[in-house]
Specification:
The protein is of the alpha+beta class and 605 residues long.
Length: 605
C-alpha cells in the first residue's frame, strides 16, 4: 500500500528561528548607533535682564550633549568627561562669582536624553547696556543675551530682601578736632557665611583704632531673620573740615539653606561724612582736651607734711579722661624749689575699654628729697578741658600743699643710732658740703615704708632659720634613738656562748645516735658559729662547705650516700666524721686559735 501523505521537513522551524534572531540583532545595532549619534544643542537664559550695579544674577546654560552609551563609556561617565562651554569676552563686562555643573538623564518612550546644566553667578562691572556673548559647545551655539545695568543700589523691601547688606553709623555728625567718634559697622547675612572678608574703615587726617570685641547676634529685617556681625572703631580727627570715611566692602560665600547651595555675595556700604570743627575759641587752656570727662587725683607715699632734712617722699598724680587717647593727656611737671631735689619717674600711660569709648589714664610720679630747712609749697594744679557732652569748658584741679622741713639727721634711723654730723648755717641751711652729702645719702636711702618692708623680710628669714634649726635638732635626736634601738635588736638576736655550747653538745649527741638530720645539723651549727664570729658570707651548703673543709664535706656526703643511695657501699664512718668536725673547729675562719678546752670530749669517760 502506497503512503500518499507528504513527508514533513523537520529542519524548517530551526532555520526560521535563526533568521528572526539575526533580524532582531540588526535592528538593535541600528537603534544604538542612532542614540550614539544624537545631536548636541545649547541654550542660554538669565533670571533677570535688568539689575543694579551692586547686584548679581544667574546665567544658566543648558545643553544636550553626545554621550557614549557603550559599557566602557557608561563606566567612565563623570564630570570631567564634558568640558564647559566657551564664552569669549564674558569677563570683560562681568565678574564670575560662582559656577556649578549638573547632569541629568531621562528616557521617554524609549528615547534617552542627556542634559548638562552650567550655572554662573555674575556681577556687572559697570553700568549701562551689557551683552553676554554666545556660548559654544561642540559646535552648538547659544543666543547672546542683553543685560541692562542700572547705576546705584537696588531698592530693598520685604518682597525683595537682600542676602547681604551693611549698615554703618557714627555717634556724632559734628565734632571738634581730636574729639572721639564711635564708628559702628554691622554686616547682615540671610544665612550662614562660610567665608568672607570685610574691609577696615579708612580715611585721611584721622587716627582709627579698633574698639572692643567683635559681637555676633540676630536681628529681624525685611521680615527676615538675619545674622549680624558688629564691629566698632574709634576715630580721632586731626584736622578741621569735612571728614570722609570710605565705604566698606564685603566679599564672601553664603550658604543658602533653602535652596541648598552656596552663593557668592558682595556688598559695599555707604560712605560717611563727619564735619570737624576747630577748637572752641572760648577755651582758655594750653592743651586742647575735648573729652566726656576728666579727673585729677593724687597719692602721697607718706601722709605727714612735716619732714627732716634728708627725708624723701613721693608724690603721684593721676590724670584720667573718657573720650581721649592716652597720648593726648598732658604731663604734670615736677616742682622746682631750692629746698628739695626732685627726681621724676617715667610716666605710665594706658587706655582701657569703656562703654563710652577710650578711658585714658596717665600717672606722673616724682620723688622729692629735703635738703634745706623751711617751708615748701606745692602749687595748685589746674587742667582746663572741654566738656563735649555739654559743650562747655571745665577745669580739673588739685589743691596746693605746704610741707615743713625741719633740721635733723639725714634719716631718723641714723639719728637714733649716732650723733648728727650735719652743721647748719644761721639761716637753717646745710653747708654746701653737707648738702651734697645729704643728697648722696638720701638717694641711697629707702623710703620709710621700704624700711618696714625690710624689717618684715628679716623677721621672716629669722623665723625660717629658727625652724630649720629645730628640724635639724629633731632629726639628730631621732637618728640617735634609731641607733640605740638597732643596737638593742642586735644584742637580742646575737647568740651567747652558752647557747653555742648547747648547740655543739646537741650536734655531738645527734652524730652518736646516727640521726638522719646530721648534715643539716652540722651545716646549721657551722652557720651559727660563723655569725657569732661576725664572718659574713652566703648561707653554707654541702657544696660551699667543700671549699672550706674538704674532709668534713666528704664525710657528710658519705653519710648521705649510705642513707639514700640504693646501690651504695658502706663508706660512712662515724669516728671519721667526729674527727673531721674537731679539725674544723681548729682551722675554720673565726675559730682558728680559739681555746677549745671548753668543748666537751668526743668520748667522755
Amino acid at each position: 500500500m502506497v503512503n500518499d501523505k507528504p513527508k514533513l521537513n523537520k529542519g524548517y522551524p530551526h532555520k526560521h528561528h535563526n533568521m528572526l534572531s539575526k533580524l532582531l540583532s540588526l535592528l538593535t545595532l541600528c537603534l544604538l548607533s542612532q542614540l550614539s549619534l544624537a545631536n548636541t544643542s545649547l541654550s542660554a537664559s538669565v533670571d533677570r535682564n535688568k539689575v543694579y550695579l551692586n547686584e548679581s544674577f544667574n546665567l544658566k546654560l543648558q545643553g544636550n550633549v553626545d554621550i557614549d552609551f557603550s559599557l566602557g563609556g557608561l563606566m567612565s561617565f563623570g564630570r570631567n568627561q564634558i568640558e564647559a562651554p566657551t564664552i569669549k569676552g564674558l569677563e570683560d563686562s562681568f565678574e564670575i562669582l560662582d559656577r556649578q555643573q549638573n547632569y541629568s538623564m531621562r528616557s521617554i518612550n524609549g528615547d534617552t536624553t542627556t542634559e548638562v546644566t552650567w550655572n554662573y553667578t555674575l556681577s556687572p562691572k559697570q553700568a549701562g547696556t551689557l551683552t553676554i556673548p554666545q556660548a559654544i559647545l561642540q559646535g552648538a551655539k547659544s543666543e547672546a543675551i542683553v543685560i541692562e545695568v542700572v547705576e546705584g543700589k537696588a531698592p530693598i523691601d520685604a518682597d525683595n530682601p537682600p542676602p547681604v547688606f551693611i549698615e554703618v553709623e557714627t555717634d556724632k555728625s559734628d565734632v571738634y578736632v581730636q574729639e572721639q567718634i564711635q564708628y559702628t559697622v554691622r554686616l547682615f547675612s540671610l544665612g550662614r557665611l562660610s567665608s568672607g572678608n570685610l574691609s577696615e574703615p579708612a580715611t585721611s587726617n584721622a587716627i582709627i583704632e579698633p574698639f572692643g570685641e567683635e559681637n555676633k547676634y540676630y536681628r529681624m529685617a525685611y521680615n527676615q531673620r538675619y545674622e549680624v556681625i558688629e564691629r566698632k572703631y574709634l576715630i580721632y580727627p586731626q584736622k578741621s573740615g569735612a571728614l570722609y570715611i570710605d565705604g566698606l566692602a564685603f566679599n564672601g560665600v553664603l550658604i543658602d539653606s533653602y535652596q541648598r547651595r552656596r552663593i557668592r555675595v558682595s556688598e559695599i556700604s555707604d560712605a560717611v561724612q563727619v564735619n570737624i570743627a576747630q577748637p572752641n575759641p572760648n577755651f582758655t587752656g594750653q592743651h586742647w582736651l575735648p573729652a566726656k570727662s576728666l579727673h585729677l587725683s593724687e597719692k602721697w607715699q607718706d601722709e605727714q607734711l612735716e619732714l627732716s632734712i634728708g627725708d624723701a617722699f613721693t608724690h603721684e598724680i593721676t590724670t584720667s579722661a573718657l573720650g581721649l587717647l592716652g597720648s593726648a593727656l598732658p604731663p604734670i611737671p615736677a616742682v622746682s624749689n631750692e629746698r628739695v631735689k626732685s627726681y621724676p619717674d617715667k610716666p605710665s600711660v594706658e587706655s582701657q575699654a569703656h562703654e563710652g569709648g577710650s578711658y585714658a589714664i596717665r600717672k606722673d610720679a616724682t620723688t622729692y628729697i629735703a635738703i634745706k630747712q623751711g617751708e615748701i609749697t606745692l602749687p595748685e594744679i589746674r587742667i582746663p578741658w572741654w566738656d563735649t557732652v555739654n559743650d562747655v569748658e571745665r577745669i580739673a584741679t588739685l589743691p596746693e600743699r605746704t610741707i615743713i622741713i625741719k633740721p635733723g639727721a639725714v634719716n631718723q634711723t641714723q639719728k637714733n643710732e649716732q650723733p648728727s654730723s650735719i652743721d647748719l648755717t644761721d639761716d637753717g641751711k646745710a653747708t654746701p658740703n653737707q648738702e651734697s652729702e645729704i643728697e648722696s645719702t638720701a638717694k641711697n636711702t629707702e623710703p620709710k615704708h621700704n624700711e618696714s618692708n625690710q624689717h618684715a623680710l628679716l623677721a621672716i628669714i629669722a623665723l625660717l632659720a629658727f625652724g630649720w634649726l629645730l628640724t635639724s635638732l629633731f632629726l639628730l635626736l631621732r637618728l640617735k634613738q634609731v641607733k640605740q634601738d638597732l643596737n638593742k635588736l642586735i644584742s637580742i638576736q646575737a647568740p651567747d656562748s652558752t647557747t653555742s655550747e648547747l648547740s655543739y653538745k646537741q650536734l655531738i649527741e645527734a652524730i652518736r645516735k646516727g640521726s638522719s638530720d646530721i648534715p643539716k645539723l652540722v651545716l646549721a651549727w657551722i652557720e651559727s658559729q660563723r655569725k657569732q664570729n661576725t664572718v659574713k658570707s652566703a648561707p653554707i651548703t654541702l657544696r660551699s662547705l667543700k671549699a672550706l673543709d674538704e674532709s668534713l664535706a666528704a664525710e657528710l656526703l658519705a653519710f648521705e650516700n649510705d642513707r639514700y643511695s640504693k646501690n651504695a657501699t658502706q663508706t660512712y664512718d662515724q669516728q671519721a666524721l667526729l674527727e673531721a668536725l674537731k679539725k674544723y673547729t681548729k682551722t675554720a675562719p673565726g675559730l682558728k686559735g680559739k681555746d677549745n678546752a671548753s668543748l666537751p670530749p668526743f668520748y667522755p669517760q
